[in-house]
């Protein structure tokens, strides 16, 4: 699967309160959450991000709370992929469970800047930066996570298992 | 092969003789929990999966604690989803307002999470129960839904890091200071994906309340779990409460650790994490005079009876400074009652602090103490990210209950001895 898009760059330790502030967690509506995505860091992000755009960030992206509202907000805002130097562990799981592709790529995360046009091959983990004419190799998605993606997410994976038991 | 406590618990729950760091394992869980923010998404996912029953009604707890007592209509609708679900599946451990508490104070207090358990909770501070010698970690709502259906979850076995604490603590220094100090040393991603094991003579004599505070904030260093070897102090805490059998695990002396840190903390003064990261840690004595507008004493980190006793010791016979709002929030109904019986609530109220029913409220900027632009708070909570307790231009300083109480009295960040001398 290939993804193309324009990049929004953020720094290190982007926490879940930055991705979606807790004051908006009284809803599970993806659209409402998306409207406040990254609000306290960049109040204009939610209105300016375009469908298919990509987030690039530094170390420990998604640290803090376990709120699944974070990947939900990012995905519903139209973001197609997050490329980071590294991810916080709960966010990492949640993103896959929500079907939001994310890639760990220290080199790319350092080089990519806001506005860069990227083309990402999720199968190989190769990231092509068309603006800078550079290529980066992201860490391949672990086989177990690929199984979840193939099933269409964790709930679908569980449903398959349940139907196998009956 | 010699193993750590985390590896032993995961091996026993996966049916394997041993497990290795980085290995993916599917494990049986002993307990699962969700709150009024995370459980609604889990319940939606549960329905989407077409599930008709939960794996074990006595091993699931739903605790409305974040936005309750319901702060607005939207929150009321979310809390209602929990009570409806609990009724439908006849869950005995749904805790309504009036019976509830902040989840990570409540479940250990009720003997529902126990040594040797594997626990998953849709809340990042689920790592608190590592203080009991459990492998306990935060997950997202969808993971919680899958766990509620199947009673199982997959994990990558975390490499373990050992933190050895030596020396004797100075007065007014406790578990909160030790964990903040640790995060200050290794950073907010210093233990990312790792199991943090806290050991040493100092931990061996540390009371349960301090152990809970330490393991609670392991997530603030990025860890999957924070864990302490259960001992006689654990046994004393658990024995009278346990709702089912439990098991003590301990690491082999020659188990492999990815990293070992050893600190003598005898000289450590109480510490504070400055805005806007739990790793910006300074000793109180090093901080220039910093005026504050609000103090919050409570939360899953420091809302236990022992925490309130410390705060009361500092506040007794004194008044909260003019221009400061001080909120004291006992973490559970039992803590509230015991604090009342001991006379602590009287001390707080006479000091002109506000005492509230249990809630996570202000910790995450939910309700019961939101900050205005430009305001600063000292809080015994666990996060001081931008906008965490209110406006994006407000600030949160994290500290222990005695430091928070002293700061309330003096109207600026203060060492408890400045008040008591």
Notes on the protein architecture:
The complex is a heterodimer of chains A (166) and B (421). With 166 residues, chain A is α/β, with parallel strands linked by helices. Chain A has helices at 16-19, 30-34, 45-48, 69-76, 89-98, 106-111, 143-151, 154-165, and strands at residues 2-9, 54-57, 81-84, 102-104, 117-121, 126-129, 134-137. Chain A has a seven-stranded mixed β-sheet. Chain A is globular and about 50 Å long. Chain A starts with a strand and ends with a helix. Chain B is α/β, with parallel strands linked by helices and 421 residues long. Helices cover 31% and strands 18% of the residues of chain B. In chain B, the strands form five sheets. A five-stranded parallel β-sheet of chain B has the order 4-3-2-5-6, covered by helices on one side. Chain B has helices at 5-14, 39-48, 73-88, 103-109, 141-150, 175-186, 201-204, 208-216, 232-239, 299-302, 305-315, 333-341, 344-350, 401-410, 416-420, and strands at residues 24-28, 31-35, 60-63, 93-94, 118-121, 135-138, 152-156, 160-166, 195-199, 225-227, 259-264, 271-273, 281-283, 294-297, 325-328, 354-355, 376-379, 395-398. The mean pLDDT of chain B is 97. Chain B is built from 15 helices and 18 strands. Chain B is globular, with a radius of gyration of 20 Å. The interface between A and B is large, with 41 and 51 residues.
